[in-house]
Amino acid sequence: MKIAWLQARVARWGWVLPAAALTLLLAGTFYLDRQNANQLELARQEAGAAAQREAATLGEELAAQVGSRVGALAAAKLQFTAVEDSVSRRAFAAAVDSVISRVSGLSGISVIYPDPLGAIAPDALRRGRYDPFAIDGVPESYRKAIETRRPAASRVIDTPAGRRFLVFDPVTGDDTLHIRAVLVAEMEPNGILRAALERAQETGSLGPSFYDIYDDHGRRITNVPAPQGWPRVERPVRIADTEWRLVVAHQPVSEQPYEVIRTAIWVTGIVLSLAFALSLTLLWRMVAAQREEIGRRRAAEEQARQSAAEAAWRALQARRLTEQLESAQQMALRLSGSHDPEEVIEEFLGGVGEALEADVAMLYIFEEEDDAVVGRRRILLNPAVPRAEDLLREDFRKVRAPVALMKHLSEPVATGRPFLAKGAELAGTGPGGAGMPGPTALLTIPLTIGGHLVGLAVWETYGEGRLFDADAIPFAQAVTAHAAAILRAAELLESVGQAMEKASKEAVRLATVLDQLSDGVVLFDANGEPELVNAAAEALLGISRGASGPADWDKAFRSRALQKKAGGGEDFFPARALRGERLRDVRFTVRVQGSDRYIAASAAPVLGQDGVIRGAAVVLHDVTDEHEYAEMLRHTNQELRQQAALLERVNDELRAATAAKDQFLAMMSHELRTPINAIIGYTDLLDLGVHGALNESQRTMMSRVLDTSNHLLGLVNDLLDLTKIAAGRIDLRFEEVAVERIVRRAVDQIAPLAAGKDLRVEVKGDSDPVAVADETRLSQILINLASNAVKFTESGSITFEYGVDGDRARICVRDTGPGIGERDREQVFDEFYQVDSGLARNVGGSGLGLAISRRLARLMGGEISLQSEPGRGSEFVLDLPLSRARSTVPRDA
Length: 893
Ligand code: ADP
Fold this sequence. Notes:
Largest sheet: 6 strands, antiparallel
Bound molecules: adenosine-5'-diphosphate
Strand content: 15-25%
Shape: elongated
Structural class: alpha+beta
């Protein structure tokens, strides 16, 4: 346990160790580096300190040297006490010389006697070489010594003998106030330095350094400067009252060995720390890998253990499921054994209900378009459920509910999965409806076929603690899956049975109807085999239905019917119909019982709902009679054509004869007119008595001759007109004719005759139409009609009436004569026709007047019509085209 914990820590924090080692080693390296640097610093400091020491020694020595030389002055001073005279002067000079010769660096000693006012007597010092008091700064030092009564040093000056500086030392009397003289020591700085160095060297305290000395004015006294870059140490040196500066430049400490050490430290440190960290990391990795491996193995072991447990559990499940499936299968087998949907439902709901130990089982049919369910069947498996009596009384098939109303219906509809609910969530779903306690548990399983929801099966339990056994639900599901299919199959079977029954009834009816048809009907299947042949078809083709199979029938049909026109083989017309063609009026003949029978057939493909050709229908119509009629008609037509040709020939002959007749008549008329005119002329002459007066009887005879001749002339004239009209040789001169005038003229002409017969003549005209006509011929027509009226009327009146009728001018000649019967009404317009009443014969006439009148009227674009009743008079109406320019003649007011 501890080890595992440790391993876990190591795995988690293992990286810390190498990191710490790395850090530590690097820190150590850094420490060593610092140490090395300190060493260097120490060496430097030591060098500096040594230099300081040197400087101190040297400074002290310098000061001491100068001090000793001033001390030498003091000695000189002692001997100076009596230098008032020349002897003492020489003694002084000898003393000075002895001092100078003993003391190096002291090149001269002088005495200056200041005057009482303290003025300088420079000549005392001058020894022919130079005048120090002429050098800037020297008099000031002298004055300072006098003022302070203490020795004072001048700056370093250049003299012809070299660099020098002067120290003024005042010599006072016993009272010390009075300055007796000033001793001047001329010193050589380099000599003093050398003496100091020698002294210092004797003590052995000087190293290989450079020394520079600067006076109080900063002027360098030494000659060789210290090398650049050397560290320097300064020190003040007291020279009398001034302060000089001593600079010691010592050799710098060499850094190279330290750098070498430093590099060695760092290289070693880094290499060491990296190597150490790396090894630690590797170690950590190894530990981690090992731990991981162990973890993996443990997990695998764990998984294997779990898998084994799961496998065992699954095996158990599988066994259970197998058992359930077996019983479901048995149940399905039982279900599929039945073809009655009701039985299937009962078996299914009841069987599953028993397995679930349910109290009520229900089956709803799902209506997708309304999203509603309709009750199909409810079974009470336990008669003790609440309100059992009501449930039994209720017609479950009338139960209908929208799916959305109830969760136990809507949810399986929405998900397509079983729905299991219990307890409180079911309040209101039971048979009692809302407010009543619901079932204890409820299971809804959707019935689907091909993923399509068709219904819902519901099982319910009632009573405390009665829940469904969870293991029974897969069973219920499995059975439901089978039941949906079996139920659908049973329903389909039922409906197929009904449909087949209906179809067979339809087939019988169709066969009966087909057999009643006088036309033959043959239905071929898609392979061209005759499927249905009605009685008429058999009779038409003379093939017996029972006698042969379809193949034989087809052969017979082909051999009998089609060898002639309808064609055999691929062009056999039912075969064409089977290829989708629609054929009408395919004609062929069959020979049945020794006589030819003519048949007109039509054929069309029989299409299924999908538009695929399922067969062909052929209708055969017997057209033998039609054919015979047609033949007959053809014969008759031929004969008629022959007769028409004959008639045409006769007509031609007749036309020729008529032409000859017309010609003859024209010629004859012409030839007759001349003699008749001569007869009339001569008769007139005789009547006038040119050859002597005639007696009464002669006159009467003459009158008769004249009458007859006139009549004859009229006749000939009429004939001539008729032939002219017939030959089309009549010339008409069309002009605008005022009708009234022509009528008056005709009235005038017949008035004497009418008066002779005591007939009233009336003329009526509400307007005076202007007709387009040949005036002479119009007159002729009217006179003709008027004279006929007078001629055939014995009593009463003749009436003329004229006016405009639409776009026609209309003239009526009406009489109260015998009238004309219907039989003669048209014929009176024929040439030479006279009504056979004896009257005509009495009054005479040729029967040409009306014929000529109608022809003339028609030539002028008009017409003559007749209205008459026998015994009630006649009315002849002439109408003519009106003038377009002016239809009537305006009447004078
Ligand atoms: P015609 O008078 O010379 O015999 P028409 O052609 O004029 O010849 O007349 C033919 C016949 O029509 C007459 O013979 C007569 O019988 C009959 N007919 C003509 N006009 C009248 C009439 N107004 N009333 C009775 N009959 C008439």
